[in-house]
Write a structure and sequence with these properties.
The protein has about 210 residues and is of the alpha/beta class. It contains five helices and nine strands, in the order βαββαββαβαβαββ. The strands form two sheets. Strands 1, 3, 4, 5, 6, 7 and 8 form a seven-stranded mixed sheet that branches. The chain has a two-stranded parallel sheet with strand order 2-9.
């Protein structure tokens, strides 16, 4: 079952009451990870709570758009014989096959005109967990002058985690929007452990309400 996460689980009440705001501006960008139909109820990799993050994602998008800041969206765009599928010996059901209805964006996700799409997992042997894996995202971010990357989406314990860690490894400041991610939690607590790992590696956690425009 997918679990919606928030950094309340990682902080004491005293810490939460003193969290600073994050002023967004020049050098900031937002990356929305894999908010696709197959990861929501009724999809091939059906989850029960993924739709709960959609309003917060839309609010976050609105904040970045209001400042004319770059917004990106990654998507799984798999061939039908992708190696991650159970039919090919992998761990997952067939999902987000390129061009299929399940690979389309989630109903209810706001789509601003300036959203830049990054397709991943397009080759049979490309794992595609990270939005940086065999894509041009690095080049796009550098061309846009991005210094700090805000990340939201799903699943927190797979694609979001791998994307955030790759961004940190490549030198970007990373802020994970913990109330706008959802975790698959194949093992109980995987999502929380993923957020903790991102923090240990230098990322920050925030909630959408903390973003000041």
């Amino acid at each position: 079952m997918m679990t919606v996460l928030a950094d309340q689980a990682l902080e004491s009440p005293r810490t939460r009451s003193h969290r600073p705001s994050f002023q967004i501006g020049e050098g900031d960008a937002l990356l929305v990870v894999d908010v696709q139909r197959d990861l929501l109820p009724g999809g091939a990799l059906s989850v029960k709570q993924g739709e709960e993050i959609l309003p917060r994602l839309n609010a976050c998008l609105a904040k970045f758009v209001s400042r004319a800041l770059p917004v990106f969206a990654s998507r799984d765009w798999h061939p039908v014989d992708h190696r991650s599928f159970a039919t090919q010996g992998g761990p997952w059901p067939v999902h987000c096959v390129a061009g299929s209805p399940g690979a389309q964006w989630a109903d209810g996700l706001w789509w601003p005109d300036q959203m830049v799409v990054v397709s991943k997992g397009c080759e049979v042997d490309a794992p595609g967990y990270s939005a940086f894996d065999a894509t041009d995202l690095t080049q796009r971010l550098r061309q846009a002058g991005v210094q700090r990357l805000f990340i939201a989406g799903m699943p927190a314990d797979y694609c979001v985690q791998h994307t955030a860690r790759d961004a940190l490894a490549q030198g970007w400041d990373v802020v994970l929007l913990s109330d706008a991610v959802a975790a698959l939690d194949v093992k109980a607590g995987d999502g929380t452990r993923a957020l903790q790992m991102i923090q240990r590696e230098g990322g920050e956690l925030a909630e959408v309400v903390q973003l000041a425009v």
